[in-house]
């Protein structure tokens, strides 16, 4: 059976006027239209394609790369809204339908939304939903403190940045732990700061605790070299100046320069830190 909303390896079985027909091991066939047909091919060759439904609700293959796949989240642009729902650009020819009942708030043309892609088992159609919380579950966490994770920022509040963690959990980066410009839709690596008793997840963008010393020290060292060996920052500098210059908290910065000073890589002066020429 062909897998809608997923990449899959299929085999070229015949060349026809509308395009190439591909098939899986069970001999289920799908058309790859001429616009995606490779210049060089041979019958029997494998091809990795993405399969979804065309405007006539028939499976069709493409070599385009959509912005999300089945059971994943993406940050999508709303291209149209009609009496049935919203339609999102998601990287393939036919737009993704988001019914009104699957909209966390009414969608507007031109705006961007975090959307989850699922398969409606009744209609066998791919549909989107911006009601993301119902697809997240923190009840059985497979995470520990200091674990590196992949996050998708969903929205910003006064408390901080809410994020989807590893595509299945909800987490929060508290405002006091944000030292760089982040926005809704950003994908990035992060680290688990704490898993609370109620299974809420605290996230940071730098290694928490003592594990942040070495990576931040290397980062400060690189910035020093790029600046010609001197930075007008030190352990008594204003926290905002440090944040604006390096994107680090004052605490992380002090740990980093302390490590560099101990390793005799820098000197700390009244007006800044200077690289020692070894």
Describe the structure concisely.
The chain has helices spanning 213-226, 239-246, 250-262; strands at 6-15, 19-23, 29-33, 46-53, 59-62, 73-81, 85-89, 96-99, 112-120, 125-129, 148-156, 160-165, 169-174, 187-195, 201-204, 230-231, 266-269, 272-275. The protein is mainly β and 278 residues long. Helix 1 (213-226) crosses helix 3 (250-262).
- Topology as a string of helices (H) and strands (E): EEEEEEEEEEEEEEEHEHHEE
Helix content: 10-25%
* Rg, alpha carbons: 25 Å
Largest sheet at a glance?
5 strands, antiparallel
Structural class, by secondary structure, is mainly beta
Name of the CATH architecture of the largest domain: Orthogonal Bundle
Shape: elongated
SS elements, strand count: 18
Number of helices: 3
Q: Which percent band covers the strand fraction? A: 35-45%
Average pLDDT score: 92
Q: CATH superfamily assignment of the largest domain?
A: Winged helix-like DNA-binding domain superfamily/Winged helix DNA-binding domain
The level 1 CATH classification of the largest domain is: Mainly Alpha
Parts with pLDDT < 50 across at least 5 consecutive residues: none
Q: What name is given to the CATH topology of the largest domain?
A: Arc Repressor Mutant, subunit A
> How many discrete structural domains?
4
N- to C-terminal distance: 64 Å
Going across the major beta sheet, what is the strand order? 3-2-1-4-5
């Amino acid at each position: 059976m062909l897998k809608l909303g997923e990449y899959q390896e299929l085999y070229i079985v015949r060349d026809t006027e509308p395009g190439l027909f591909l098939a899986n091991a069970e001999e289920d066939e799908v058309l790859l239209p001429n616009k995606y047909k490779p210049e060089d091919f041979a019958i029997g060759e494998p091809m990795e394609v993405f399969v979804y439904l065309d405007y006539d609700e028939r499976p069709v293959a493409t070599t385009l790369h959509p912005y999300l796949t089945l059971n994943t989240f993406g940050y999508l642009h709303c291209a149209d809204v009609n009496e049935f729902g919203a339609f999102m650009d998601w990287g393939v020819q036919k737009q993704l339908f988001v019914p009104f009942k699957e909209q966390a708030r009414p969608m507007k043309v031109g705006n961007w939304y975090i959307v989850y892609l699922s398969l409606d088992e009744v209609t066998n159609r791919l549909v989107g939903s911006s009601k993301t919380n119902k697809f997240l579950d923190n009840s059985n966490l497979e995470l520990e403190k200091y674990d590196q994770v992949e996050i998708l920022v969903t929205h910003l509040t006064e408390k901080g940045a809410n994020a989807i963690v590893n595509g299945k959990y909800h987490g929060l980066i508290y405002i006091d732990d944000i030292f760089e410009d982040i926005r809704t839709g950003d994908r990035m690596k992060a680290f688990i700061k704490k898993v609370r008793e109620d299974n809420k997840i605290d996230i940071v963008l730098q290694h928490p605790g003592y594990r942040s010393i070495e990576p931040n020290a290397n980062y400060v060292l690189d910035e020093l070299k790029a600046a010609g060996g001197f930075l007008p920052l030190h352990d008594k500098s204003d926290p905002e100046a440090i944040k604006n210059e390096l994107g680090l908290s004052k605490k992380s910065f002090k740990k980093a320069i302390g490590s560099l000073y101990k390793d005799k890589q820098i000197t700390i002066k009244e007006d800044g830190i200077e690289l020692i020429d070894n």
